[in-house]
Amino acid sequence: MPDAAYVRDAFARIADRYVLTNHVLSCGADIWWRKVVTARIRRWKPQRLLDVASGTGDLALEIQDACPDCEVIASDFCAEMLAHASSRGLAKTLVADALNLPFPAGSFDVVTVAFGLRNMADYPAALREMLRVLKPGGRLVILDFSLPEGILRAPYRLYLHHVLPRMAGWLTGQRDAYEYLGGSIEQFPSGTGMTGLLESCGFAETEATPLQFGVVTIYQGVRPGP
């Protein structure tokens, strides 16, 4: 699993160009991915939501705009990233470690984490902490990269390990921060691997929804009731 100090430093170095780089590398598809997640959350009409590893606040901002009656709180352990989230209009941000969230048990209707769980030092510990702060019946939504199956797998891996780091290095001047990305995606559990991990951490009603031929996947789980 990733080294926390390295991840924090890497994100601090790319914070200024993070949003632009994501849009370029995904050809704008990252905007649509977050809209799909937000549309799902909007149907649930949550009153309080925590976006963990929020970074520059892309998903939290989308939810804040779409769910005006919901209190959206964004947390991240990288202050430099959250500073951008605040400057972009995110109302509530908090520097916090996802493995030790500073909230009482049962605080939120929904917890989200987009492209962040993969960077955490201990997946199960982070998931159990997200479970803790959810209300009974509350939902966890994870959006993260996965590897497509079939004929797309080989060209996608070529892009991931060779093309993407060069492009990101040119855009940010920090190529090493993106060379780590491909390996992290390869090692990250996906499909039934992720739903099984969610269940082992206490979540119920787990599901996985691949998007765009499996380049990314939405995972969902529910904290069981009393």
Per CATH, the class reads Alpha Beta
Widest sheet, order of strands = 3-2-1-4-5-7-6
Give the low-pLDDT segments.
none
Q: CATH homologous superfamily, by name?
A: Vaccinia Virus protein VP39
Q: Major beta sheet, specifics?
A: 7 strands, mixed
As for the CATH topology, it is Rossmann fold
Number of strands: 7
Order of helices and strands: HHHEHEHEEHEHHHEE
Mean pLDDT: 88
Q: Give the total of domains.
A: 1
Shape: globular
Rounded Rg? 16 Å
Please identify the structural class as seen in this structure: alpha/beta
Walkthrough of the structure:
The protein is an alpha/beta fold and 226 residues long. It has one domain (4-221): 3-Layer(aba) Sandwich (Rossmann fold), CATH 3.40.50.150. It is 47% helix and 21% strand. The protein has helices at 4-14, 18-25, 29-44, 58-66, 79-87, 123-133, 153-172, 175-187, 192-200, and strands spanning 48-52, 71-76, 93-95, 108-114, 134-145, 204-211, 216-222. A seven-stranded mixed β-sheet has the order 3-2-1-4-5-7-6, with helices on both faces. Helix 2 (18-25) runs antiparallel to helix 7, helix 3 crosses helix 4 (58-66) and helix 7 (153-172) packs antiparallel against helix 8 (175-187). The radius of gyration is 16 Å and the shape is globular. The two termini are 33 Å apart.
